[in-house]
Amino acid sequence: MQSRTVPRDQASTDRTVLDGAMVLPRPHRFDVYTAVGGLLGGLLLVGTGLSTRPADDPVTLFDGPWPVLVPLGVMACCELLRRAAPRTALLTGTVAVCADVVTQGNLATVMMFTDLVYAAVLYGPLASARRIQWITGLLTVAATLVPFAVWRTPQALLIGVVVGIVAYGPAATGWIVRNHRDAAEAARLRAEQTALLAEMDRAQAVTAERSRMARELHDMVANHLSAIAIHSTAALSLDDPKTSQEALSVIRENSVDGLAEMRRLIGILRDSSGDTEPVAAPTLDGLDALVENARTNGLDVHLDTDPGTVPAPVELAAYRIVQESLTNALKHASPGRVTVVLAQRDGSLTIAVTSPFGDRDGPRAPGSGAGLVGMRERVALLGGEFEAGPAGDTNRADGKIWAVRATLPLTEGDSA
Questions:
Q1: For 134-158, what is the mean pLDDT?
Q2: Is 324 within 8 Å of 314 (Cβ atoms)?
């Protein structure tokens, strides 16, 4: 079971149960100071003989200094509960201040009552705070109009003024402070949520950028390194100077091309203010060179392309899909024709690469399986469709067929 620590002034006002007995929360330190200060101030007023009404006032039923101490003590005890149990404190304090009216009165008792009204609105439940606002407002209006209607003297209006100062004034002040506190808390929560969302966006951006870099690095280097691995194996396994010379030439060509691709990736990652300018991204115009390089590496490739004009993101994705498909064919395909077809259909660029497979004991070069994942991710980012696997007709006379098919939308929204 998880627990949460909150400030004591925001602690729940509900009573808790300990060992089967109902107990109130521990008073806040400031409330203790307020209660002690109010009690000492009231005792000082009693000791000096200062009171709010003379002994011969008609309202005073209990004259003398000692009856004043009872409501004073009760009010001080209520101050201890002003934050822990604000509604209980206000109800008890209301009884105490009414008892203080029939004595000579003590200013400290009245001052502590105003604080109880303020605390009940500020720390109590929202519904209670609203009710206290309405009740104190109606009492103020009634205390203003009723005495004036009965006595018809301007001095009767002072009763409403006093009630407004003692009751409605603290309630209105507590309501204003509560609204400011709630607004500040809401702003703090919004700031925390904004910071959390920003951190999530940053983490997603970092992850997406890492995935993009991984795809670029794999697509740019895997083709050349696969050719280097295959031809170096041939050069080592065959004792034929001419064959070794041809293999070394292919190895050198792929090494140079791979180095150029690596420089392009470094150019993408480098700040544009640096010494190295980024190299232009490959386009579909480079498919002829890509196919020619695959033929040099030993593939029998047939290219049929009519892509038309396509957006740059779609063009880069299509180039990488063809490049990775030819790399896979170089590593896994059986002897036979590899077909590459690109065409625009119904507002989409369709890519189809087929190659024979099934008669080889193992791949000619090791692979990690990241190529298919990278192609699928590229197509998904553009909102297209991708599938790779054995073709439907696997009973052809020339053996089984492995097919890679991708459909990339050409609309601006999907290609952005």
A1: 89
A2: no
